[in-house]
């Protein structure tokens, strides 16, 4: 995919995909009996590890989580190729922590950026592009 032909996914499309992912993860946690609200408890840590694995594994394998698949967007490198495991791990860990740390400004940034990149996309050299 050429850089000029990429159709970037904006804030609201990304938000809807994230909302679908949150619903999927909440259902999984409920089925597994993991509903702890106590921060840093064993259950809370397991919930976070499952969530992190969900994002890293699906994005690493397919370039998409279930939410992104349903909405029709995917994570790619800035040249349009598959993101690759290194970029995915960087994006989903350090990148998203930095995006969230200042009042979630890093996520909101995608709504104002010319190429619709959030901070975690900039850090990992990725875009979210439309597939439909």
From TrEMBL:
<feature type="transmembrane region" description="Helical">
    <location>
        <begin position="12"/>
        <end position="32"/>
    </location>
</feature>
<keyword id="KW-1133">Transmembrane helix</keyword>
<dbReference type="Pfam" id="PF06271">
    <property type="entry name" value="RDD"/>
</dbReference>
<keyword id="KW-1003">Cell membrane</keyword>
<feature type="transmembrane region" description="Helical">
    <location>
        <begin position="94"/>
        <end position="112"/>
    </location>
</feature>
<keyword id="KW-0472">Membrane</keyword>
<keyword id="KW-0812">Transmembrane</keyword>
<protein>
    <submittedName>
        <fullName>Uncharacterized membrane protein YckC, RDD family</fullName>
    </submittedName>
</protein>
<feature type="transmembrane region" description="Helical">
    <location>
        <begin position="52"/>
        <end position="73"/>
    </location>
</feature>
<dbReference type="InterPro" id="IPR010432">
    <property type="entry name" value="RDD"/>
</dbReference>
<feature type="domain" description="RDD">
    <location>
        <begin position="8"/>
        <end position="124"/>
    </location>
</feature>
<dbReference type="GO" id="GO:0005886">
    <property type="term" value="C:plasma membrane"/>
</dbReference>
<dbReference type="InterPro" id="IPR051791">
    <property type="entry name" value="Pra-immunoreactive"/>
</dbReference>
């Amino acid at each position: 995919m050429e850089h000029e032909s990429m159709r970037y996914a904006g804030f609201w499309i990304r938000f809807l995909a994230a909302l679908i992912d949150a619903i999927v993860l909440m259902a999984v946690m409920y089925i597994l009996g993991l509903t702890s609200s106590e921060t840093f408890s064993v259950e809370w840590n397991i919930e976070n590890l499952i969530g992190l694995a969900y994002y890293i594994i699906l994005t690493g394998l397919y370039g998409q989580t279930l939410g992104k698949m349903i909405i029709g967007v995917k994570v790619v490198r800035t040249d349009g190729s598959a993101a690759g495991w290194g970029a995915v791990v960087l994006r989903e860990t350090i990148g998203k922590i930095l995006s969230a740390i200042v009042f979630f400004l890093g996520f909101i940034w995608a709504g104002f950026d010319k190429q619709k990149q959030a901070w975690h996309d900039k850090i990992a050299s990725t875009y979210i592009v439309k597939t439909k």
